[in-house]
Design brief:
Elements: H1 2-35, H2 39-53, H3 57-70, E1 94-97, E2 112-116, E3 121-123, E4 128-136, E5 140-146, E6 151-161, E7 168-169, E8 174-181, E9 186-195, E10 198-200
Antiparallel strand pairs: 1-2, 2-9, 3-8, 4-5, 4-7, 5-6, 6-8, 6-9, 8-9, 9-10
């Protein structure tokens, strides 16, 4: 029993010494590269930094998703960004304000604003449930649609809403009609997209034909 324990301890110490030796060698090389001022040394130095500080989050996420999808569970589905595609605009109009632009009240826009020639029909960009219908001081009548899997769309500057809270809406169905914006003296629609409660750029998800 003592002999086994000694062997285990010896193996552990050997592995520890080997690992420490490797780390020590890398550290010495790194210090030497810092001292030696050549193009090759500089490039090698940058590569070592890249390896040490590289963000492996996306790689790990990809491996995890592949493992999950390989499990035979038909009812279990993960919806990632690439699967949530907006292939139709919520309204027929021209984008005049983009995500992240500065607005008139010195704030950053959390969505995009469409300008339309007149009142237009506003359509749901994806299947979902009407989560909230409310009046807002900045964007007028607002509708929030829960598309599940963390995605929500918010439509503002509406003049008319044709659904009530709790109702199911299908992609392409008319949610309401956009209204006139007195401050801008034009018709428009505010469109915001959220993922897990965080505003994201809708244009990164829009892929129109």
């Amino acid at each position: 029993m003592n002999i086994r324990n000694r062997r285990k301890t010896s193996d552990f110490l050997s592995r520890m010494i080997n690992n420490l030796s490797i780390v020590l060698i890398i550290l010495i090389v790194f210090i030497m590269l810092k001292i030696v001022k050549t193009d090759t040394a500089s490039k090698l130095n940058q590569y070592i930094k890249y390896v040490f500080y590289k963000d492996y989050t996306e790689n790990l996420k990809s491996v995890a998703l592949n493992r999950v999808h390989s499990i035979n569970m038909p009812a279990f589905k993960i919806l990632n960004k690439n699967e949530f595609v907006i292939d139709q605009a919520p309204v027929d109009g021209k984008i005049v304000v983009k995500f992240g632009d500065n607005t008139e009240d010195n704030t950053t826009s959390k969505g995009i604003i469409y300008e339309t020639e007149n009142a237009k029909e506003v359509k749901a960009i994806y299947d979902g449930v009407i989560e909230k219908v409310e009046a807002n001081d900045k964007y007028g009548l607002l509708v929030t649609i829960d598309h599940k899997n963390g995605y929500k769309s918010i439509l503002g500057y509406l003049d008319e809403v044709r659904f009530t809270e709790g109702e199911t809406v299908k992609k392409g169905e008319i949610v309401g009609v956009n209204g006139y914006i007195p401050k801008q003296k034009k018709y428009g629609l505010y469109f915001e997209l959220q993922l897990n409660g965080i505003c994201v750029d809708p244009l990164k998800y829009i892929k129109l034909n």
